[in-house]
Write a structure and sequence with these properties.
Length: 235
Amino acid sequence: MVSVCLASYNGEKYIHDQVSSILSEIRDDDELIISDDGSVDNTCAIIESFNDRRVSLVHNVKKHGINGNFENALKHAKGEIVFLSDQDDIWLPGKLNACMEALKNSFCVVHDAYITDADLNILEDSFLKSFNCKTGFVHNWIKNGYLGCAMAFHRKILDLALPIPNNLPVWQDIWIGSLCQLTKGVTFIPFKGIKFRRHSATSSTTYKNSFTLSKKISYRILLLWHLFKRLYLHK
């Protein structure tokens, strides 16, 4: 069984297309867990309109924000394989099968993606090439390549990853990807599984790369502290 964990917040503009693309990929016994962080637009109504038993809408009422919202979705996941998903991208045919095949020999995989504008016009043909993504902890600690919306992993990592630290200075994909790398490893695969949509309301800083050098250094040091603290406590 596969669990797709999607975090939503005021995503009415794109979420219908995203949910449709996910449902066309997953199987009858898989699930799409959508955690909503208090949307005040039509996001929840759009999700409920699918009336699909594979879709579960859960409301995030405790730890608000991107990390808390994803954590809420992950806590409800029942599948042995977990996919992360943003609310505004588009899944492409073959994504599920490509990741499932790679996960037979890997603990966590990150597939490639097309980078697009708001209208899905392709800006970059390959996320992995654009960001020079490579395996290895140090490389990704310096420049993150763990793109959450292109990530799938075995649920066992959640025993280590959850709860996500309250004051974690980076997003959940860097946290989970780093823990996977330090324990079982991460594999990058060339299959382009999504259209990674970039627009004015995008929350992710993976593509914006907007932090100053001093902030990047301080955030990476704090990430290290959280990672090794978590690993030490779970010995």
